[in-house]
Amino acid sequence: MRLLASLFGLGLLATVSLAQEGKKESNVPVPPTDAERLRGTWIIESVRVNGRDEIAENHSWVDLSFTFEDNNFRFQLFPGRGGTFQLKADTTPKQINFQLPKIKSEDGKSPGFVRAIYKFDGDRLRMTLGVTNEEDRPATFEPTDTGPPFIFVKLRRPDLADTDGVIGEEYRRLEGNWVLVATETNGQRTTVTEEFRLKVQRNHLTLTNGDKPVWKADMKLNITTSPRHADLTITESAGDHRVSDTLHGLYSIERGLWRLCLPNRADDPRPTNYETDKPGESGLVMFFNLEGQDVDLPPGTRHAIGKSVGLPGPASKLRGLRLERVKALRAAADLAMNRYESGQLRLTEMIALEESVYLAERELKTAAEDRIELLDARIRRLKLHEKHLEALVEAGKAPMQDNALMKATRLAAQIEKEQLSAGK
């Protein structure tokens, strides 16, 4: 089973030279660009809003992470929990524009947006965020007693005091079942047609090929670097790797696509990037889709199709249709909170959408263990909604009974999980 070896680049990676002749490095330091300074994870330290004396302690944004990677950003309380951004560093003050693809702007066609300004204040980042889908851009970093409800945010880098919390959030994002859909090495991408699945429970990984175990590993993440680091230490192996081997790699995760880059061998240095067509700088890149989702891969250098294992039958077609249904329902549910805030949707309708997503996903799960994991994910999502509603209630934008209803929905999911776990 040579594809097993290919998962860590064994047997399929060409021998490359780590030495490159004729390169001369300049000793003159080049100052980092704003995009480079912005890259990575920040922690929200304080938040204020025009016209409000006290918001930081009660607002749900404080202590949450805000992450920038390439031209993408992630923030769980924005509609869709992320999108893209563009910097304009040659203006005064400097500008940052957020695009929110999960919602539409006022014309109903183009993506939603937030106009903002930013500046670096020592080792802190300060941003003032405008109102969603309004062109009026903030002009100052200090709140006033009157004026539009601009949000003034101060952020810092993660430190030891909160690393556990931020890392815990990152591990929770990775928990679940992942399907290996493609690999890339030496600039060539291969579609994987065998059923390789990676199960993540906390920091424990289990890779299987069909019903056959391949390896188990413990994973250690570092979110303070760019690119982010993932170190895998093998704890069980049915292949070529030895127990206790550690592979020092890179990873990124966005909207259900997990990209994991590992070196050729355990004693090789950590790759520096994901560009596998640069000898000596990278190893094997693996692309995993979260089970139940079908996420487009980023562009590759060249593309080769893996060995076929037969044409899809009726069962595969039915599963494909169910996956499409889950994807469509999830897209609708991701817009629900924004529509609720704007008064276009009642809370009961939003909860019904979330329930529809859960029931559609449950159709794809047959094992009790998988359904328990699905319920865990549902409970986490409902907790986020509950936290968001608490902030809306505090701001006088939602009635208290709505928060109580969301809490009851979350408790119902927890009861269902406990019953399933007990085999009732």
List the uncertain runs: 1-25, 54-58, 301-316
Class by helix and strand content?
A: alpha+beta
Find the count of extended strands (DSSP E, 2+ residues).
18
CATH topology of the largest domain: Lipocalin
Give the helices and strands as they follow along the chain: HHEEEEEEEEHEEEEEEEEEEHHHH
Mean pLDDT: 78
Rg on CA atoms, Å:
23 Å
Name the overall outline: globular
Relative helix content: 25-40%
Chain-wise SSE layout:
Layout lengths: L1 H5 L27 H5 L1 E10 L15 E5 L2 E3 L7 E7 L5 E11 L6 E11 L2 E6 L21 E6 L6 H12 L1 E10 L2 E4 L4 E6 L2 E6 L2 E11 L5 E10 L8 E9 L2 E6 L21 E7 L11 E4 L8 H28 L5 H16 L5 H27 L5 H22 L3
Parallel strand pairs: 10-18
Antiparallel strand pairs: 1-2, 1-8, 2-3, 3-4, 4-5, 5-6, 6-7, 7-8, 9-10, 9-11, 9-17, 11-12, 12-13, 13-14, 14-15, 15-16, 16-17
Q: How would you characterize the overall build of this protein?
A:
The structure is a single chain. This protein is of the alpha+beta class. The protein folds into 3 domains: 35-157, Beta Barrel (Lipocalin); 166-305, Lipocalin (Beta Barrel), CATH 2.40.128; 314-421, no CATH class. It contains 7 helices and 18 strands. The protein has helices at 2-6, 34-38, 163-174, 314-341, 347-362, 368-394, 400-421, and strands spanning 40-49, 65-69, 72-74, 82-88, 94-104, 111-121, 124-129, 151-156, 176-185, 188-191, 196-201, 204-209, 212-222, 228-237, 246-254, 257-262, 284-290, 302-305. The chain has an 8-stranded antiparallel barrel with strand order 1-2-3-4-5-6-7-8. The chain has an 8-stranded antiparallel β-barrel with strand order 9-11-12-13-14-15-16-17. Mean pLDDT is 78; it is low at 1-25, 54-58 and 301-316.
